[in-house]
């Protein structure tokens, strides 16, 4: 299962869901509605969601965030996220905090060091999902894709499994992940040219991220936030 | 001025003509960030125009006396005084830099020869006295003309100093500094009709000050939720009623306006009136809330009406009717179809001001142009 394929599949699924789930209170999915006539509903709300998450991150990166901007973006994100919510047909997923949850947590710490709380929140997310590359997209300023020059790759999910770093590793930690299928976090998944995945964790630590990695990571992170990515994993502890 | 413009929609009738009378400042693209004007405010009589910029400076323009030989020419505004109002500061506790950008200027009603204004950045309000000096004393006994002390043994006669005219000098001196009362960014200040108190508003709180007292203020509105996770709305503007010193209004990011009466309780968290126009279902979008966010609220001089500005329109409200405005004027309706792009480039978050003209026929003032 390739990440890019997964993405495409997600969008097609969403479009079908969008057509099926038209209801009075989901006017934003109604293609006849003048407000959404311009773009296909699923694409519009999905890219708006991405954009809003980016804006939220950017806003929180400020040393003193503009509270009005923050509140307006969060409220808009909530609207978009509500419009993208899976229909009743899908099984309820014990998903990690979705965007409003994150936003709520972020707002809660707005008096204190916001970036610190966001980092820890994403760290929590990463421990749940195995995506501890999360700090990397935050470091990205402006044009996406370029990793910070010379900086060593941030602690990856792969590193948790491999022998590379000593700081996070415990034998106990490996025990935690025993029953989770970690094959999807294999490093080869991140390389743009690779097809499929191999369960070869030892390949992991050696790979450097490609510039495209950050964008893929961000997409993956957002899939996780929306909860759709979680559905693709075999039923497990999930959390 | 790094970008200034004017527009007008008179309330009833298109008999007004609008044009640029003067353009001050740099007209080209090459404008230093510090020179970007962040706020403008006329004095009550209109003879002075104060501007604040991102560099913390205040520049006051004065209208020249109209020339009798050219009775139809409009009075020109020329620089009257320039001073540095605010400097960048560093909050060591929070490890944050406080911008010197002037957010708002408000003139105090004129009571003597000197003029007073309040200027504020994100955290600190200052009261400035602007006074003219056009005479100086000459003929001191103890010092000579360059100020050097004279040898007392050489003084043989006493003289009375006399006042001689000099070139007009305008001095600005800080008289009060009102600091440390706001956790969030100050967006409004408003002088009360009692001429003794004024309010300052940030995103979540409104404080009441006495002009003479700098070491304390009273909090009169506090919308900060106990749990910040529940925050969905911030204060965007606030103003005192022009005649009733106990009445104030504040607007929110959700497009609502609350009127409060300070006589009812010390803390005005419960409003006396609540103004909100129901959302038009046909124009709903993801951006409905953002474009409904009120960026400015102003009472009419009569005190009977108030005007609010949101992203696309100006609305006039009758204080006696809370359900909807009595007039709505679309300012740039052509932008409604471009909201997505405007959201993308953050322009949708821009704020505009509005003001009434002298006869309470509405004037809308655009804060800056966009191409």
From TrEMBL, chain A:
Residues 1-21, 134-157, 193-215 are annotated as: Disordered. Transmembrane segments: none annotated. This is SERTA domain-containing protein 1 isoform X2. It comes from the Eukaryota. Pfam families: SERTA. Residues 41-88 form the SERTA domain. InterPro entries: E2F-SERTA_domain_protein (IPR052262), SERTA_dom (IPR009263). One of its GO terms (cellular component) is nucleus. PROSITE patterns: SERTA.
TrEMBL record, chain B:
Keywords: Repeat, WD repeat. Gene3D superfamilies: YVTN repeat-like/Quinoprotein amine dehydrogenase (2.130.10.10). InterPro entries: PP2A_PR55 (IPR000009), PP2A_PR55_CS (IPR018067), WD40/YVTN_repeat-like_dom_sf (IPR015943), WD40_repeat_dom_sf (IPR036322), WD40_rpt (IPR001680). GO terms for cellular component: protein phosphatase type 2A complex. One of its GO terms (molecular function) is protein phosphatase regulator activity. Signal peptide: none annotated. Belongs to the phosphatase 2A regulatory subunit B family. This is Serine/threonine-protein phosphatase 2A 55 kDa regulatory subunit B. It comes from Tursiops truncatus.
